[in-house]
Write a structure and sequence with these properties.
- The chain is mostly helical and 185 residues long.
- The protein is built from eight helices and no strands.
- The chain folds into two domains: 56 residues; 126 residues, no CATH class.
- Helix 1 runs antiparallel to helix 3, helix 4 crosses helix 8 and helix 6 packs antiparallel against helix 7.
């Protein structure tokens, strides 16, 4: 049951996100109401992924070494920074074409590094594949792109501070759910 729910969630997430690119006429025909339908599908996908993830049996595939926790946390910090408005407004990553998708991909890679069970590999692997597919699809559809001009350093500082706070909050939510994501503990 857990696998079916998880795979349905991943399919909803993937399908809802690529719908606009795979079927642009159909999506355009839905008008503004289509935004709500897509958002509802994405939300339902997230709920199904979380439930399916928790309901699948633990099947170990490999045993990640403990030092990968540090790399995971650094990648998640960078990912949260990239998911913020800072890359478009700041100086550090203003040349990154797809900061949010890149950040999402880094987040997925980080979780693949520290989770050696089959459920995690499938979940974060599919989410990583989704991010890469989106980047490739966007680049093919819109080949002409110019990077943003460098912005103000303050945006990088704000984005980094926000990312640090978010890592702490998300880390403690993980701990509340029974998984301590930081070294030691």
């Amino acid at each position: 049951m857990g696998w079916i729910v998880l795979l349905m969630g991943l399919a909803l997430w993937f399908g809802a996100h690529v719908f606009k690119r795979a079927m642009p006429e159909r999506r355009a025909g839905m008008g503004d109401a289509g935004k709500g339908v897509v958002a509802a599908a994405i939300l339902a996908g997230i709920v199904l992924m979380v439930l399916g993830y928790r309901w699948t049996p633990f099947v170990p595939v490999w045993n990640p070494p403990s030092f990968l926790v540090h790399i995971n946390n650094l990648l998640v910090l960078i990912a949260f920074y990239l998911l913020s408005p800072a890359p478009k407004k700041g100086r550090l990553f203003h040349r990154v074409r797809h900061p949010m998708l890149t950040g999402f991909g880094l987040w997925a890679v980080a979780h693949l590094l520290v989770n050696g069970d089959l459920t995690a590999i499938v979940t974060f692997g599919v989410l990583l594949i989704w991010a890469v597919v989106e980047i490739v699809w966007i680049n093919a559809a819109e080949p002409d792109w110019e990077p943003n001009p460098p912005g103000a350093w303050k945006w990088d500082g704000i984005g980094l501070a926000g990312a640090v706070i978010l890592v702490a909050v998300v880390g403690y939510i993980h701990a509340w759910l029974g998984v301590w994501p930081f070294a030691g503990g």
